[in-house]
Amino acid sequence: MTSQDVSHRAKVTLPKTAYGLIAILVLLVVASVTTPGFARVDNIFVVIRAASLTGIVAIGMSYITISGNLFALSASALGALLAVLFALLTAALGFAAGLFLTLGIAVLCGLAQSVAISLIGNPIITTLAFGTVFRGLAALFSGNSILRIESEAALWLGTARPLGIPTQSWAFIIAAILSWFIIRHFKIGREIVLCGANPKAAVASGLRVGLVTAIACAALSIGVAVMAIMTVSQFSQAKADLFMGYDFDYIAAVLVGGIALRGGKGTPLQAALGAVLIALLQNFMLLHGLSAGVRMTIVGLLVIASISLFHILQGRGR
Amino acid sequence: MLRMSGIVKSYGPTRVLEDVDLAVEAGEVMALMGENGAGKSTLVKILAGIEPADGGTISIDGAAVSIRSPGHAQAAGIGYVAQELSIVESLSVAENVFLGDETLGFFRSAASLARRARPYLERVGLDHIDPLSLAEEHSVAERQLVEIARLLSRKARIAILDEPTAALSETEIVRVKAAVRTLAAEGCAIIYVTHRMPEVFDLTQKVTVLRNGKSFPAVETAGLSIGDLIEAMLGRQLGQMFPPRAAHAGEEILRLDACRASGLKAPVSLSLRKGEILALAGQVGSGAGAVLRMLAGVTPIQSGSVTLEGGAYAPSGIAGSIARKVLYCSDDRKRDGIFAVRSVPENLSAPALSAVSRFGLLSPALEGEHVTRIARQFGLGERFLGRLAGNLSGGNQQKVALGKWIGLDPKILLVEEPTRGVDVGARSEIYSHLRKLADEGLSIIFASSDTQEVLGLADRIASFFHGELVRICDADDVTAESLTRDVTRASEAA
């Protein structure tokens, strides 16, 4: 070999997920020591449940980011539309039909967005517009009133605790593991990663970029549908302004988890850890009686700090 | 007027310029010539303040100057027109003429700007265009002329033109040449980088040749023969760098009949045999790359027909050519050849994901086997397999970009500039790998602007100039000189 490669230095590299885990552990220890009531069992459940639904959507969002499509800004609005539709369908056709039809509609909404993204080429603008459409349809279908459902099965789905763990958290854990497996071990998962890493090279290598965008959008929509169905089931009601303003929470979890903004790097597991970290921090601040404004500021600063940190780490690694 | 002496520059461990001297007088047009990679662009970038020199001195009118940024260069009266034009398409022609000129102040009416721009536009032969029209409405040649008008407006005393005619047609070249003469007549010293012989003999008074980062003393163009010039440019002996040619080629596998595509000005007909390496020789914009892009399905076949193994071949898009096992490697591996942020194995298996999966699941065993096979065939050592592709050297990146296709058992491999940005050692490795693949039955077409590479690697050579096929010859019947004549249209200069 005559070719000289730079960066021969051996270096210790931690997997990206490790940073998230370390941050969570540090926060746990600090909070348990300094905050009375933090380590209590019922508080832990509150944290887990709070992290779960946001986390499920963040996992879906991570498909979009990893595939190189930045973010979708339509998730919260789609959640409201699906919640309204789930309530209407369950009231009319029963729980099982409502469940499966809602999931089907979610996938269709995802596919419609992916077609538009492929045509327009800008996921941010496209999903922003779709979000407005979804929110508008939610208001239209709900007639701007609160829709109530009565279903034993739905109530179980929303409030049961198999093995002492809330159903939301089961869904969260399953989604995290399944998504990690899909990205790491499925052929389509590798295609998602490669398309995100370099879309032009992906096209030149004959990979199916359009299909990848469609799968990513569908994955997010399914995550949103799970959140919507579980929320409606828990409270037995739906309305058009559900999840209003939550979009940043999903994106924050992806970013705090350290998934590269430009795509092609990271796993959904990191988004899940990001969601847990933010939920812990929120809870910790709440127990210390910090006002909503302060909490919001701190979470925003955390996002800025973690993007900068990962950017610096990445710069050093290359 | 301008004197550069002892200029030294390295990129990492690679010396690109060693002890280069260059001198230009006022009103003189100096051709700067040399093969690709000889260091021409680096030298002019140093003068334009875009790259810092590692050593050497620059003096203007006998006074030493230090050029550390494009601002310094501009203050010293040096104007630079790069290969990639710096015209802002959404601004008017007049605004482009005065782009970056801070002496004008902020509040200039469009009309007064147009009035001030007009004399400069007239001097470069653009008197017929409206200074207030948008730059994007004009042809590449006209934008080129706008850049020269900008040099005039800045009263540049030294002008660098880096291949100003590479993308232009013959009639457009005439206009650029006229503008360059105007510039020289005003007392400007001009450094004119080009690959085209006719322009050298038509336009310049002196020639400085760079070869492998070293300069030769400038010579008068008038007393120079084309042969001397070509010999000065090529000169090197690298015969041992190339593997022996094929003993015999197989039956015909691909045939082009009167094909046209974007980038070609005349229909192209040629054929390719099994196990043969065919070179398409030509400079940027010659049409050599256009033929490859057409065969790869990147640009459509506008007319004519292509026959692959006796059947019609008209790929719709890249996926279409991949399906027929005609595989294409572009000249810009960073853009579309590799996945820089992913590991080498993931790069190598990217086009063959179906082959390394079972029931939609990636099989680590199959993928490992696939990757090891390619790595062995392309001489990629074990230690590179854990790296990100973006962290490899240019040579190893090129092996990844080429090697990823080998796993698909291609019939025809189309390679554009197979060793651009690759060091000499890795070059000869890549040549021998390509030759070995051809001996095993793969047919290869490569486009290259590197004369030695074309002569050393190819079995047959098709030379291109300005969108037209000049001739096709057996490599044995071609010499460096005859090839250089073909791809620079030396016949027109004589």
Features:
heterodimer, A: 318 residues, mainly alpha, ABC transporter involved in vitamin B12 uptake, BtuC, 2 strands, 75% helix, globular, disordered N terminus, B: 494 residues, alpha/beta, Rossmann fold, 2 domains, 7-stranded mixed beta sheet, 6-stranded mixed beta sheet, 18 helices, 34% helix, 24% strand
Task: Explain what the structure shows.
The complex is a heterodimer of chains A (318) and B (494). With 318 residues, chain A is an all-alpha fold. Chain A has one domain (39-317): ABC transporter involved in vitamin B12 uptake, BtuC (Orthogonal Bundle). In chain A, 75% of the residues lie in helices and 1% in strands. Chain A contains 13 helices and two strands. Chain A has helices at 16-34, 41-66, 75-93, 95-120, 123-142, 152-159, 167-185, 187-197, 199-204, 209-235, 247-256, 268-287, 292-317, and strands at residues 147-148, 237-238. A two-stranded antiparallel ribbon of chain A has the order 1-2. In chain A, helix 3 (75-93) packs antiparallel against helix 4 (95-120), helix 11 packs across helix 12 (268-287) and helix 11 (247-256) runs parallel beside helix 13. The longest helix of chain A is centred in the last third of the chain and has 27 residues, at 209-235. With 494 residues, chain B is α/β, with parallel strands linked by helices. Chain B has two domains: 2-234, Rossmann fold (3-Layer(aba) Sandwich); 239-493, Rossmann fold (3-Layer(aba) Sandwich), CATH 3.40.50. In chain B, the strands form five sheets. In chain B, strands 3, 6, 7, 8, 9, 10 and 11 form a seven-stranded mixed β-sheet that branches. A six-stranded mixed β-sheet of chain B has the order 17-20-21-14-22-23, with helices on both faces. In chain B, strand 4 and strand 5 form a beta hairpin. In chain B, helix 5 packs parallel to helix 6 (170-185).
Q: Per DSSP, what share of the residues of chain B sits in E-state strands of 2 or more residues?
A: 15-25%
Stated plainly, the CATH topology of the largest domain in chain B is called: Rossmann fold
Q: CATH-wise, what's the superfamily of the largest domain in chain B?
A: P-loop containing nucleotide triphosphate hydrolases
Cα distance, first to last residue of chain A?
22 Å
Radius of gyration of chain B: 24 Å
Q: What number is the mean pLDDT of chain A?
A: 89
| CATH-scheme architecture of the largest domain in chain B | 3-Layer(aba) Sandwich
Instruction: Give the beta-strand count of chain A.
Output: 2
Return the CATH class of chain A. Answer: Mainly Alpha
Structure annotation, total helices of chain A: 13
- Topology, number of strands of chain B: 23
Supply the number of structural domains of chain B.
2
**Major beta sheet, strand line-up of chain A:** 1-2
Give the uncertain stretches of chain A in residue-range form: 1-12
Q: Based on CA inertia axes, which overall geometry of chain A fits? A: globular
Rg estimate of chain A, integer Å: 20 Å
